[in-house]
Amino acid sequence: MKEIEALRAAVKANGAKEQEQVGQVKNRLHEELKTEILDALRPHITSEIKSVIEKETKTQVDLKINNHISIPLATQEEETEEKLSEVRVSLANSKARIANAAITLEHMNDKLEVLLKKDGKRSKLYPADLTSLFAYNLDRVRELLQDYGLESDTNLRANLNRFIDYIGIPQESRIA
């Protein structure tokens, strides 16, 4: 009986020792797996954090910009481009008017410098010279004036004089 009891005590001690060793192995595996999982997930977590920070920063910056600037930058850029285009057309037309100011009725075959329409394009009806312009009939002159956003009259001479003035030809070249 003593031997059985000693054997039981040895088995019990051995079981307790095994339980302790299994617990140590479990703890070690748990810690190692935890470290491996964290190492494996760290790049993804870092990427997600960066993404969230970027989105939130952009949102906050946009809000702050909108608080300080009443007109959005994209709208300002679009309006600036439109104004710049208008200025370019205006500058080109000013140069053309200056060149056209040298043309008189004595030089009716001299080439007219082209004035651009508001959209920056040349009218298909723009005459090559004063001789060509004076050959236009009333309807064609009215269409030409309309291309440039000018008012037209029922009188051919009034319309020709209006266009001559518009393109920079001197007053003495007007049709009486």
Describe the secondary structure blueprint for this structure.
Blueprint: H1 2-68, H2 73-100, H3 130-134, H4 138-147, H5 156-167
Helix pairs in contact: 4-5
Which tags fit this structure?
mainly alpha; 176 residues; 2 domains; 5 helices; single chain
Outline the structure in words.
It contains 5 helices and no strands. It starts with a helix and ends in a 9-residue tail after the last helix. By secondary structure, it is an all-alpha fold. The radius of gyration is 45 Å and the shape is rod-shaped.
Query: Distance N terminus to C terminus?
Result: 147 Å
Instruction: Supply the helix-strand structural class.
Output: mainly alpha
Total count of helical runs of at least 4 residues? 5
C-alpha geometry: rod-shaped
Radius of gyration computed on alpha carbons: 45 Å
Number of strands: 0
Strand content: under 5%
Identify low-pLDDT runs. none
Oligomer: single chain
**Estimated helix fraction:** 55-70%
Helix-strand pattern: HHHHH
The structural domain count equals 2
Largest β sheet strand count, sense and barrel closure: none
- Could you tell me the mean pLDDT? 90
